[in-house]
Amino acid sequence: MSKNQMAWLLIGLSVSLCWLASLCKVYYSSHSSSRTAFFTESKQKRNILLVIAHPDDESMFFSPTISYLTSKGHNLYVLCISTGNADGMGNTRKEELYQACAILKVPLHQIKVLDNPKLQDGFGKVWDHDLLAKIVEEEVASGTIDSILTFDSYGISGHCNHKDVHHGVRRFLNMSRRKVEAWELLSTNILRKYSGPVDIWFSIVYSMCWPSGQVHCLLNDDPSKSFQAMAQHMSQWVWFRKLFVSFSSYTYVNTLKRIA
Prior knowledge:
Its EC number is 3.5.1.89. This is N-acetylglucosaminylphosphatidylinositol deacetylase. The chain is about 45% helix and about 15% strand. With about 260 residues, the protein is α/β, with parallel strands linked by helices. It has one domain (about 45-260): LmbE-like (Rossmann fold, 3-Layer(aba) Sandwich), CATH 3.40.50.
C-alpha cells in the first residue's frame, strides 16, 4: 500500500470514528438525566408557536427541537406561512406537512397552513413584514401562545422566504405589547452545516460560551424520525434532499438563541 493510500485510509477511519463517537453522544444524551434545561424552569407546559415558511421546513431544519418539545409534553403549534406552491404542488405539499407532523407527534388541529396571495413560495417573492407580524399577532392571541420559534436572519439556507419570516416575527416582537418569549434557529457555515452529527461538539461548545439561558443546544433523541418525517414529503423527497437529511447537522442538533 502506498503512502497516499495509507493517508486516505487513515483519514477515512478518522472521519468514521468521529461520526460514530458523535452518534454515541447523541444517543447517550437522549437517555441521560443531564439533558438541557430548555423550557424546564417551571412545571407549567408551554404553548409554543413554530413559524416556518414552507412545508418540509419542520422536518429538514427543526426536527431536533420538535422532538425535544413534544417529549417534554409542551403544546407545539405549527404556523406554515405558505403551501409551497412554487411548482404548482401546494395542495399536495400541505397534505404532506400533516403526515410529517404526525410522525413528529404534532396534533393535526395544532397545524395551520396559509395560502395568502401576498405570501407565495418562491425565490424573489418578497413577503410583507407588516403582514407577517399581523398574522403572528393573530396566532399568538388565538392560541394563548407564550413562546415563538423561527428562523434567524439568514434562514439556514439563505432562502428569502425564511429570512422574511424571521423579520416578520421581529416586527411583531417590536410592535406587540404582549410578553412573548422568542427563539431563533441559528445558521451555521457550510462546513458545519454538512458535518452531520459531528457538529454537535461545535454546537455544545458554542452554547457554553453564552450567558446561561441565552443559547440552548438541543440534540435529536431519534435522528431516524427526521428521515421518516421528511420521507412523508414525497414530492420533495428527491436524491439531493435525501443526502441533505443524511449529512445535515440540523438532523442531529439545533442551536436556539433567544431573540433580544
